[in-house]
Amino acid sequence: MTPEIAPRYLEPTQESGRDLFMRGIEGEVVMLNLLRFRDIADYAATPDLAPVTPISGAAAYDLYMEHTLPHLRASGGDVEFMGDGGSFLIGPSNERWDLVLLVRQKSVQSFMSFASNEAYLGGMGHRLAAISDSRLLPIVARR
What we know:
- The protein is α+β, with helices and mostly antiparallel strands.
- The chain has five helices and four strands, in the order H-E-H-E-E-H-H-H-E.
- The protein has a four-stranded antiparallel β-sheet with strand order 2-3-1-4.
- Helix 2 runs antiparallel to helix 5 (124-130).
- The protein is globular.
């Protein structure tokens, strides 16, 4: 019997993007990012971005953040928190996350504009090379 491979989540789907927009969120939105890195970054999909020698997934994510922050800030967003993760205190014991980020954006529309910016997308290959799995949860402050 073949072991079942758990699904991986690397990018939003058209449906999840539509659902976010349809929530009708007014004002700021904070994106909770949970990231699990590859041991060695996989640049197979974007060899033009690959460093000369192999690097870790964490190092590839650092390249992604270096590329991304100017575009994020120009769109009205910023990283509010970035920290090392680990295993859950409450949650699945077999699940761990290497990095946790809280990214604030002034609106869903600003986030969508940022996420579709051609200059930003030019560095997306670093993110895809870096991570083996991720979660992105839009959260809104209670009023």
